[in-house]
Amino acid sequence: VSSLKGVVEAQCPNGCKPFEAQVWSLVRLDHNPELREQLMAGELNLLSCRTCRRHFYFDHTVVVHDPRIELLAFVFPAYYKDEAKKWSEKMRQDYEILERRGGEAIDYPPVMFFGLEELRVQLEKEDDVQDEVEIARHLSKSLKLELYAVKPSVAREREIPSVLPCASNGGDMRSRLLAGLEQLLHENAYLRHYKDCLGQLQSAKDKAVPPPAKE
Ligand SMILES: [Zn+2]
Fold first, then answer.
1. What 3-state DSSP class applies to 72?
2. pLDDT of residue 55
3. What is the distance in A from the centroid of ligand 1 to the CA of 152?
4. Which of 25, 126, 160, 208 could covalently link to 197 via disulfide, CB atoms 3.0 to 4.6 Å apart?
C-alpha cells in the first residue's frame, strides 16, 4: 500500500462556499519522502479557500506509516484530544484490522497524536536524536567500538538513540553497552540522549538491554 489521497468537501472557517479538495489519509514516509517534507513544513493537508484564500487545515484522521523506523502514527484532529480514551480504543481496533489484513508484518504498537503539529514535534525530536547518532557513529569508529542497533519503536518509546556504541569484548551485552556508552561520553559529554540511555541502562532493575533491531 502506498500513500492514499481522497476527495473531500472542505469548509473554510470564514464560512465561505464549500469546495472540493484532495487530502491525504494515509502517508507512507518511506515511499513518499516529499510528504515528510510537507509535513515538517506544516503544509500537509493545508488547504487554501477558493473564495477568500484563507489557509486552513482539513481536520481528519491521517495514518502516517514508516516501517523503516517502525512508526505507525494515528494522527487524529487536534480537537479530539478531549476524548483521548475513546480514540485510543478506535486506534486499537483499526490497528487490529491492519494487522489482520497482513501484507506487511507490523510488530510494533501504533502511536497516537492529536494534530499533525504534535507529530511534527515528535519527528523533529527524533531528528535531533539522529544528529547525535551521526556523531556517535563517527566517534565509535575512532574508538574502535561496535554498533548495536536497537528496535526503533522501543528506542522511540524510551527516547534513546536507535544506534548504541558497544565495546567489542568484555562480557555480556549489557556490560559491553555500558562500557561503550562510557567511552563515548568520555569523548563527548554533550550527547544528551546517550547520557540518558546510560542512566536507563545502569538503573534497569531487570538488567535487560533494549531489544535489537531486526537484521
Ligand atoms: Zn474562505
1. strand
2. 95
3. 42
4. 160
